[in-house]
Amino acid sequence: MKKLLILLLLILVLLALGTGAVAYRYPHVIAIAEEGFPAKTWPAKGIYVDVVGKAQQWPHKFQADAALDSEYGQKLQQLNLENETDALVAYHKGQLKYAYFRPGFNEKTQFNSYSMAKSLIGYLVLKAIDEGEIGGLDSSIGTYLLDLKDEGLKNQTIERFLTMRSGLQIEKKGPPKPLAKDAKRGPDKDASNPFTLLAQMHIEGLPGILSQLKMPEAPSSDYHYQNVNTALLGLMLTHIYKKPLNVLLSEKIWRPAGAAHAHWRTFTNEGSVTPYCCLFATVEDWAKVAYFLSKNGITIDQANQTDEPQSLTPFLQSSSVIKYMVPGRFKAQDLREGIYGLHVRHDILDRTNEAIQGPFTYFVGHGGQLVYLLPEHDLVIVRFGRKHTLLHSNVYYLWRVIQAQLASSEKS
Fold first, then answer.
1. Residue 160 and residue 312: Cα distance in Å, rounded?
2. CB-based burial of residue 363 (10 Å sphere; 0-12 exposed, 13-18 middle, 19+ buried)?
3. What is the pLDDT of residues 107-128, one digit of tens each?
4. Is the dihedral of CA 197, 160, 145, 132 positive or negative?
5. pLDDT in tens, 224-258
6. Is the pTM of this model over 0.90?
């Protein structure tokens, strides 16, 4: 018995020493363990700051969808159940046409954006170019981010970070894995390793690892999805505007779009927001933001006004900047394979016998969080769930449902 107690005590001592060694060598690992994987809905563990909004009241009420009795309404319902959709809403011409909420969720639930936040950083970078704060996509990131130490990193263009082609390697040793023909994929599995620089950045922020960021001697220009690209762009924006990112997002997009207050995760030990993840907001707020961006500065509230249209200031004023967010600038074949643009993704609707056709833009996050922008069809779709869903079927089914509703209203 005595030997057993000694053995147990020895095991406990070794575990304590091992834990202490890990905490000494990788202090961020303890913080990661305490916070855990980012929650899907608010409230969530971690440290957050507000994205101040100014909610516009829309002339509609959320309710269970009224189209389940139709063929495509039933197909959509089946898709929602199979892919564990938590919320799915669609707005056509500024009007709510479809709303589904899984039991336990509703219009007040604030969902985690995960990587959809990256797309907002892309729009903020374009806004900075439009306002003359950045010379252009071909400008070197080191021109605006003076804290960078590595000359190779300094000389990389802003466009290469926006398109996930910077060549910077941080998630694992060796050259980045090329994904040029698979732009619909997310980060590598190694991205979840708690002992990498990426994990350290997730807790300590960029300042603590900037001196360790170095370009390889022969950097690749292949597509390689990495959070550090977005983190660097976010830090660059805060240096340019001398404002925190949550304030910038509030001023440039969130408040003008008429969205309500949101919560954005911060680097635990540093205080600034994580540009690549974890913005908690409702489906309605995401729809407002999507509409605002797809219509280049027009809000749903303004679109629904019956009075004389007021003079509006576009979100982006320069046509040379606006073109960068238009999926039509890509070839149809490339769109079919999936395009990662400037921190947004592009694809194409081309299924035979479907009424809705053409290219579209979308944001995507871990678990299949989706925001679709289809300005040519005056359509915005927002989806949150626990599994990835069929990208195109959502749009096809919803469009069928919307067209059926329109036909029914015309008859009555």
1. 32
2. buried
3. 999 999 999 999 999 999 999 9
4. negative
5. 899 999 999 999 999 999 999 999 999 999 999 99
6. no
Contacts of 194 (CB under 8 A, 6+ apart): 26, 28, 29, 32, 33
Of residues 365, 395, 363, the one with CA closest to residue 379 = 395
Give CA–CA dist 215/225, Å, rounded.
16
Please tell me the distance from the alpha carbon of residue 67 to that of residue 405, in angstroms, as a whole number. 8
Q: How far is CA 143 from the centre of its chain?
A: 26
Q: How many C-beta atoms surround the C-beta of residue 318 within 10 A? A: 13
Torsion, Cα 195 201 203 205, to 10 degrees, reads 160
Task: Give the H or E element holding residue 381.
Answer: strand 379-385
For residue 334, count CB atoms less than 10 angstroms from its CB and return exposed for 0-12, middle for 13-18, buried for 19 or more. Answer: middle
Residue (of 209, 115, 217) closest to 171 by Cα position: 209
Q: Which residues have a Cβ under 8 Å from the Cβ of 84 and sit 6 or more positions away?
A: 102, 385, 386, 387
Question: Helices (DSSP H) in 184-294: which residue ranges?
Answer: 197-204, 227-241, 245-249, 283-294
3-state secondary structure of 112: strand
